Amino acid sequence: MTEQAAKNKVSMDLEVVAFYVGDMLCAMECNKIREILNVEQVTYVFHAPDYVKGVVNIRGQIVTIVDLKKILEIPESDEKRKPRIIVTQFRDESIGLEVDSVEDILISERATLSNPPSHLGDLKGAYIHKILKTEESLVAILDTEKILDTKTKDM
């Protein structure tokens, strides 16, 4: 494969991190993730919206932690998982998205992605950017920009 062909192939591929929010399998593009952390001691912030878990100090930087389950209105799962914080950059601020577990890195061709069903037109459905079909399941690729843009207006 020539170098140009390899570059074209990379641009056609989508690399995502798959994670659970409750029982919903979701994903986020790898290029939007700064790091993935174990859940640490989160400091509660008084009068913050209910989806804000609090803040943490990550190597001297204060990061706001938000609970994706509350934003997406997904109930708690009965399954015991290892919660993680996915740190992303939004505007000029680091935001941590608390998820129930990080599962895998998936690579797919962009052409194989589907649009979400039209009946998901409510606000929660609007947070789903694309649907990735794997051999075992469907993965909702979240539009984290839209999630954070909608919710940070309340913060």
Summarize the structure in words.
- This protein is an alpha+beta fold and 155 residues long.
- The protein has one domain (15-151): CheA-289, Domain 4 (OB fold (Dihydrolipoamide Acetyltransferase, E2P)).
- Helices cover 17% and strands 45% of the residues.
- The chain has helices at residues 3-12, 68-72, 123-126, 144-151; strands at residues 13-21, 24-29, 33-38, 52-58, 61-67, 84-90, 93-99, 101-109, 128-133, 138-142.
- The strands form two sheets. The protein has a five-stranded mixed β-sheet with strand order 8-1-2-10-9.
- It is globular.
- The termini are far apart.
Walk me through the topology.
Layout: H1 3-12, E1 13-21, E2 24-29, E3 33-38, E4 52-58, E5 61-67, H2 68-72, E6 84-90, E7 93-99, E8 101-109, H3 123-126, E9 128-133, E10 138-142, H4 144-151
Parallel strand pairs: 2-10, 5-7
Antiparallel strand pairs: 1-2, 1-8, 3-6, 4-5, 6-7, 9-10
* Rounded average pLDDT: 84
CATH fold field value: OB fold (Dihydrolipoamide Acetyltransferase, E2P)
Estimate nothing, just give the exact number of structural domains: 1
Binned strand content? 35-45%
Give a quick rundown of the structure:
This protein has about 160 residues and is of the alpha+beta class. It is built from four helices and ten strands. The strands form two sheets. The protein has a five-stranded mixed β-sheet. Strands 3-6-7-5-4 form a five-stranded mixed β-sheet.
